[in-house]
Backbone:
């Protein structure tokens, strides 16, 4: 089955055409960046040849239309049999991938106030692909679904019963990435025991998994919580927000912009949300150094919390843009955990080998994640089951 995958971020969208079989092979991959600005769309085929389609990309819908237009011109033989979408926020009622219908779309529109950064562009992308492929089954794959198997205590906030029953719980995010990493670990016989997966990128989180079951994660009710990120604050004392509302008279939209777009690495450094930039500047710019130090400090603290939940650690996995590519950040985060038997092999780490730890009780791995492949797998399964049920 050939599946089109659509993975919308807050200012980007990744698109892929996958041939789904045992390996889920990407036939084509595209990414539109800097949406809302002078963006560009890069398309790559299986030979690593890039096509750069630059121009104005005012919104996510236009980025998807641009990709589909290119696909129609350059690959008119591409037979798309299903479309899979990454939906960041599934809410309390959507714990597994499902066919997109009007009832689901109504639910997602109701959830927009809880995730104003991700849900509107995802809904726009769905509208474009439904118009482009009428009658083709489309599937929503929820980033929150992986964590719905966490124990009830890990999903709970210390609030009165009424907020909890209205859906204010800890959902967790980056679930498609965590699913893919666990699938990879199962494939190499390394999915047992106590595992912490650190998905570190512009959005950052960690998950604790024991014997294949998720036990806890750092993000909570929204993707803003947990670790400090590129532009997101991560966890804050609720009193900070009350102070900003009551004393500094900030409005809810201003607070949203503050915690989602102006904080994190960008807010602390005052210059960049990109870890590569900050590492390069940290020797000469104190604020850049401060941002890097705070990020690693918080990551070590959250790693310790995940280890406490697991009752120890057998495997630590780094993934995501920072986790896969920054040897220095990996080394800084692991520093100080030698009492657990966690020791980094400097040479292996600098070359980003699959295993970057010295032989011992804790194995540290660097694994590439692929949310889009996971979307393709889920979509193929749901669509195949749907078709078989009507035979």
Residues:
């Amino acid at each position: 089955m050939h599946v089109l995958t659509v993975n919308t971020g807050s200012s980007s969208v990744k698109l892929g055409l996958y041939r789904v079989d045992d390996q889920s092979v990407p036939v084509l991959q595209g990414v539109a960046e800097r949406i809302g600005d002078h963006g560009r769309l890069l398309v790559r085929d299986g030979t690593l040849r890039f096509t750069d389609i630059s121009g104005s990309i005012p919104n996510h819908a236009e980025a998807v239309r641009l990709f589909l237009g290119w696909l129609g011109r350059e690959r008119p033989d591409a037979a798309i049999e299903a479309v899979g979408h990454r939906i960041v926020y599934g809410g309390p009622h959507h714990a597994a991938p499902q066919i997109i219908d009007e009832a689901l779309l109504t639910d997602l529109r109701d959830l927009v106030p809880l995730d104003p950064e991700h849900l509107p562009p995802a809904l726009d992308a769905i509208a474009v692909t439904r118009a482009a492929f009428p009658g083709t089954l489309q599937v929503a794959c929820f980033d929150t679904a992986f964590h719905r198997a966490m124990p009830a205590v890990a999903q709970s906030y210390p609030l009165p019963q009424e907020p909890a029953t209205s859906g204010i719980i800890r959902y967790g995010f980056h679930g498609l990435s965590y699913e893919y990493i666990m699938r990879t670990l199962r494939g190499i016989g390394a999915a047992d025991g106590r595992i912490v997966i650190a998905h570190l990128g512009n959005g950052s989180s960690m998950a604790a998994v024991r014997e294949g079951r998720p036990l806890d994660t750092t993000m909570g009710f929204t993707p803003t919580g947990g670790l400090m990120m590129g532009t997101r604050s991560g966890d804050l004392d609720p009193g900070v927000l009350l102070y900003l509302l009551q004393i500094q008279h900030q409005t809810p939209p201003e607070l949203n912009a503050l915690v989602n777009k102006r904080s994190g690495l960008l807010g602390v450094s005052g210059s960049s949300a990109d870890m590569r930039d900050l590492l390069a500047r940290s020797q000469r710019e104190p604020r850049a150094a401060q941002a890097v130090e705070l990020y690693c400090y918080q990551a070590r603290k959250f790693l310790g919390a995940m280890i406490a939940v697991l009752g120890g650690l057998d495997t630590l996995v780094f993934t995501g843009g920072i986790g896969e590519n920054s040897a220095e950040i990996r080394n800084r985060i692991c520093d100080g955990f030698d009492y657990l038997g966690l020791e980094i092999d400097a040479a292996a780490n600098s070359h980003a080998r699959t295993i970057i730890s010295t032989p011992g009780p804790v194995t540290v791995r660097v694994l590439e994640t692929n949310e889009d492949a996971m979307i393709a797998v889920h979509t193929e399964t749901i669509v195949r089951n749907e078709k078989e049920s009507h035979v």
The radius of gyration is 21 Å.
